[in-house]
């Protein structure tokens, strides 16, 4: 249990930094996608916006538990295990919710694609951390 908490904390900090980095890089790298966030479908409330930064923390601990439970399934070197973990997270969690979001709100496939990539990288980063810390 100590490894789950420790690796969850480390992953929380790294994923939080990654979320902040993505928030700062999005307007620079994908300006057209950034303009879509001005759509009224997105709520601009400071209280609710804070959940963007709470998400990586909750996610890190959930993924730490998942890793601890299924780590023996992920084989290979550190990079292979981390990338496979990111792919598993993409397939079982991120992809289904993106299909639902695309069907329910007015966002482009480009936005959905960036969210899919973001989810993959979150899972892969967490997987790399867990693979390193759960040796």
Question: What can you see in these coordinates?
Answer:
It is built from six helices and no strands. Helices cover 81% and strands 0% of the residues. The chain has one domain. It has 135 residues and is mostly helical.
Notable characteristics:
mainly alpha; 81% helix; 135 residues
Based on Cα principal axes, name the global outline. globular
Number of domain modules: 1
Major beta sheet summary: none
In quaternary terms, these chains amount to: single chain
- Unreliable runs, pLDDT <50, ≥5 residues? none
The average pLDDT value, as a whole number, equals 92
Written as H for each helix and E for each strand, in order along the chain, the element string is: HHHHHH
Radius of gyration: 16 Å
Secondary structure: helix percent: over 70%
Q: What is the CA–CA distance across the termini?
A: 14 Å
Number of helices: 6
Strand content: under 5%
How many strand segments? 0
Query: Structural class of the helix and strand makeup?
Result: mainly alpha
Concise synopsis of the structure shown:
The chain is mainly α and 135 residues long. The chain has helices at 2-29, 31-36, 46-49, 51-70, 78-104, 109-133.
């Amino acid at each position: 249990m100590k490894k789950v908490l420790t690796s969850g904390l480390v992953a929380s900090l790294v994923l939080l930094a990654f979320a902040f980095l993505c928030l700062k890089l999005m307007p620079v790298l994908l300006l057209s996608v950034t303009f879509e966030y001005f759509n009224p479908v997105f709520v601009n409330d400071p209280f609710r916006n804070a959940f963007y930064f709470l998400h990586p923390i909750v996610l890190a601990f959930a993924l730490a538990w998942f890793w601890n439970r299924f780590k023996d399934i992920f084989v290979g070197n550190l990079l292979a295990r981390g990338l496979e973990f990111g792919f598993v997270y993409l397939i079982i969690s991120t992809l289904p919710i993106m299909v639902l979001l695309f069907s329910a709100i007015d966002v482009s496939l480009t936005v959905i694609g960036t969210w899919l990539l973001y989810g993959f990288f979150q899972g892969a980063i967490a997987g790399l951390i867990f693979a390193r810390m759960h040796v």
